[in-house]
Every structure is written in C-alpha cells, then in structure tokens.
Amino acid sequence: MSVSQSIPEQLSPVDGSVLRTVCGNFATGVTVITSGSGETAAGATVNSFTSVSLDPPLVLICLHENSRLLPVVQESGGFVVNFLTHQQKPLAWAFAGRQTARLEEVPHHASAGDLPVLSEALAYLECRLVTEYDGGDHAILLGEVVGVGTPAEEEDPLIFFQGSMRELGRESVLQG
Length: 176
Hints:
Elements: H1 3-6, H2 16-23, E1 28-29, E2 31-35, E3 42-46, E4 49-54, E5 57-64, H3 69-76, E6 78-83, H4 89-94, E7 108-110, E8 116-118, E9 123-135, E10 138-149, E11 158-161, E12 164-167
Antiparallel strand pairs: 1-11, 2-3, 2-6, 4-5, 5-10, 6-9, 7-8, 9-10, 11-12
C-alpha cells in the first residue's frame, strides 16, 4: 500500500504557521552552516539538520530556497555543520535572518577542504555536497561527512524549543 492510498483525499494540508507552532514542540540542536571561501564565505543559522547514515557517513540539512547561503554551498560543493554551545546564543541570532553576520566578524578557521569552521563551536562536520532535493520552499541537501572536530566538547549545547533558543542545563539531563 502506498502512502497516498493510506491518507484520505479529503484531508487538506495543514497551514504553515500551525505546522511551525506544533513542530516547535520538538527540541532541536542549533547549528550554523558555513560554506564558501574568501569573499564568498557565508553562514546561516539552521536547526533542520539530521544524521542520515553511518556507512557511508551522510547528513542532511535544509536551506530556504531564497537563502543567500544556498548558492554559496552549490558553488563550493560543500558545507560545514557547526554545532553551537549554549554560550553562542548571540552568534546563532547573528547568523539568523536575511541580514546575517559576516564570517570575518567571528573566530573561525579553514577546514582541510578550505571551508570556514567556527573555531568555538561545540563540534563540527565538514561535508561534501552529494545531492540536492526539492523540498517545497526549501532545498534538502545531502552531504557526505569528510571531516569532524570537537573544539568545545566539554560545553553544553544550545537548543531550540518552542520558538526560543535555550540552554540544556545539567539538571535537566536524565540519568539512565
């Protein structure tokens, strides 16, 4: 049975603002995706990130179709996923929106593949762009992980929940 046969046709799509509100109840990590080099280097705050496969090592990110970072990633053929620490909330906001921070304004260094890495990130994944899929108003980018690092491994992550960036906090971590 296909998916289209299992959902009644009379159901209409959910309004985008309602979907955003409901999905806001799913806590995610906060990342800044960086790409390009020199004058074209750019970054954008993204929480649409997921690990896809360990063998081969693949991850997925989503960028809005009008993102100024999208053509930079397409031209460079790669991107870096920078996981942010709880102390990097101002940085996350600086790279959010249409008028984002410039990479030369924040500590960063070049990866082995000459892509920008945020030097104070919790961890990072350097990725080679494998393919791009149409995702409505977003581009879905699949990347092969070709390099990793954990510069601030001992820090707590920055998370996004119900429309705001938050600190995980040690007391909220469940002991298993």
